[in-house]
Amino acid sequence: MKTQLIKIASIFALSISTSVFAAGDHGAHAGKATEQKSVETMEMTQGEVKKIDPKTGKVTLKHGEIKNLQMPPMTMVFSAKEAAQLEGLNKGDNVLFAVDQNMNITHIEKKQ
Ligand SMILES: [Cu+2]
Span of the secretion signal (predicted)? Predict the structure, then answer.
């Protein structure tokens, strides 16, 4: 039980550090090997923001194929793990995002 908690905590910490990394230096791809690996294994999907509610952490995305969920392209509502992840995003933005098995957004960033 305790081991499981530690595991969840470390996954959470990893997703935060990845977000910080992605939000920071977009130009330089010479990041640390560990950070590059976590981005690669994240299965980023393209989407377009159709509706956004930062208060509830819900965002409607018209998304491309989500390979890790074997989901075809569609428009649907996702919940962000943290409502703060949606700050700075607006309706009409093109984004790259990653979702976990429960369809919660673990990572989302504006596509430049
Ligand atoms: Cu979907």
Answer: 1-22
For residue 32, the CA-to-ligand 1 centroid distance in Å is 32
63 Cα to the center of ligand 1, angstroms: 7
Structural domain span for residue 88: 2-110
Smallest Cα–Cα separation from 38: which of 23, 25, 19, 24? 19
Q: Tens of pLDDT along 34-88?
A: 444 444 467 899 999 999 998 899 999 999 999 989 999 999 999 999 999 999 9
CA nearest to 49, candidates 13, 102, 87: 87
Q: How many domains does the chain have?
A: 1
Those residues whose beta carbon sits under 5 angstroms from the ion ligand 1 are 71, 74, 76
